[in-house]
Amino acid sequence: MSSEKITVCRKEHFNAAHRLYRPEWSNAKNEETFGKCNNPNFHGHNYDLVVSLTGEINPVTGYLYDLKLLSDVIKEKILDRFDHKNLNLDVPEFSSLNPTAENIAVVIYDLLRKEIEPAIALRITLYETERNFVIYPSL
Amino acid sequence: MVYLTRLEHFNAAHKLYNSQWSKEKNEEVFGECANENWHGHNFDLYVTIKGEVDSDTGFLMDAKKLGLLIKDHVIKKLDHKNLNMDVDFLKGQICSTENLAMGIWSQLAPQLPSSVQLHCIKLYETPRIYVEYFGEGNLFHDMI
Questions:
Q1: Are strands A43-55 and A121-127 parallel, antiparallel or unpaired?
Q2: Which of A21, A37, A46, A129 is the best mutation test for B, with the most CBs of B within 10 A?
Q3: Residue A38 belongs to a domain with what CATH number?
Q4: Which residues of chain A lie closer than 8 angstroms to B37, CB-CB?
Q5: Domain count within chain A
Q6: How distant is the Cα of A136 from the closest Cα of chain B, in angstroms?
Q7: Which one of B39, B81, B126 has the shortest CB-CB distance to A39?
Q8: What is the pLDDT of residue B144?
């Protein structure tokens, strides 16, 4: 059996509202920095989330990781808390952290890292729109 | 007769909520979509017009000009907005994709040149949920 590493991925999606702003800044400074993303009444996105795990294939099961288990973990730790929510108001991790795509990816990584054994590397790819996406950790 | 479609995008927050109903009834009917703090989507909007080709230009309508009309009369009002709170033509409406498609029709139809007709508003709320509206029985008619 090869000990080459392999990557398995699970794709999920959630819909959420958010707003980009810093409460300690003036409205003018927020407008200048975040533009229309600073709308006080929020806006929203369909987020596509790709969770990638990299490691060695378990010779007994033939799996790197049971993708059904990965799906269950993502659902419990991320989707149940983020889907159809307001990221600023409903998700405690963003109570004082701007919910940019970058920060959302880091928060998702930190939440999932605790759930996946250390020998398996984790990477988050988060699409905020079809054309804007972030990758963490960086390539 | 030929048909021309232009695709535009916008992102917005909304909630599904009937103000005549209790919070419990809204949650029962609309589920997670009734979250009082809003949620949001990337909407894809397909606008299809129809008519005859202009023999001088070979166009039904200049697609660039159609894009500018959609941006000026629809996208500017919806993009990065809260559909329930920020959009004049949705005031008093339940902000479902169905009602949004009908509202977009009413915004756009009067702006088109007389040589073309609006044929269809196709609006994707998610990659797997979309509405098509062909102008029949427009509840927004009185608001035009």
A1: antiparallel
A2: A46
A3: 3.30.479.10
A4: 17, 85-86, 89-90
A5: 1
A6: 22
A7: B81
A8: 42
Predicted TM-score (pTM) of the model is 0.90
Exposure letters A113-136 (e unless 16+ CB within 10 A, then b) = eeebeeeeebbbbbbbeeeebbeb
Q: What is the bridge-based pairing of β-strands A85-86 and A6-18?
A: parallel
- Tell me what the mean pLDDT of segment A50-68 comes to: 96
Do B33 and A84 lie within an 8 Å CB cutoff?
Answer: yes
List Cβ<8 Å contacts ≥24 apart for A118-122: A119/A55, A120/A53, A120/A54, A120/A55, A120/A64, A120/A65, A121/A53, A121/A54, A121/A55, A122/A51, A122/A52, A122/A53, A122/A54
Task: Please indicate whether, in this complex, the C-beta atoms of A36 and B80 are within 8 angstroms of each other.
Answer: yes
Interface A–B counts its CB contacts (< 8 A) at 76
- Check whether A57 has a pLDDT greater than 80: yes
Tell me the residue type at A18. Answer: H
- Which of B9, B28, B52, B80 is flagged as catalytic? B80
Ordered structural domains, chain B, with CATH: 2-137 (3.30.479.10)
Q: Residue B82 in contact with residue B12, Cβ under 8 Å?
A: yes
All residues of chain B having their beta carbon less than 8 Å from the beta carbon of residue A12 are none
Domain that holds residue A96: 6-136
In chain B, the N- to C-terminal Cα span, in Å, equals 26
Q: Is residue A1 part of a domain?
A: no
Q: What is the ipTM of this complex?
A: 0.85
pLDDT tens for chain B, 144 residues long, are: 999 999 999 999 999 999 999 999 999 999 999 999 999 999 999 999 999 999 999 999 999 999 999 999 999 999 999 999 999 999 999 999 999 999 999 999 999 999 999 999 999 999 999 999 999 986 654 444
Determine which one of A12, A31, A37, A56 is catalytic. A37
